[in-house]
Amino acid sequence: MRIEFDRDTCIGMFQCVAEWDGFERDEDAGKAVLVDGEETAEDLFVREVPEDAELDAKFAARTCPVDAITLYDDDGEQLIP
Ligand code: SF4
User: Fold this and answer.
1) What is the tens place of the pLDDT at every residue in 39-65?
2) CB neighbours (10 Å) of residue 55?
3) Which of 5, 6, 23 gets mutated to test ligand 1 (max ligand atoms within 8 A of its CB)?
């Protein structure tokens, strides 16, 4: 599973941080940080989600109020949102 984080869209309410430790707080910027995320475009971060973290990553994506987090399965199909 692959996760994509649109940091530009993020409004920093940090619900995702409570769901998965793959997200951390950047209090100064008022944005979440995708830990080990690779910036593939401006403010767009991507990484693989380990199998044992998939459930938490799904909760993080579902809880985001502005859909800044997108999940894809291994075939590239969008799962959430
Ligand atoms: S839940 Fe969404 S808006 Fe809130 S910090 Fe996480 S990515 Fe940003």
Assistant:
1) 999 999 999 999 999 999 999 999 999
2) 12
3) 23
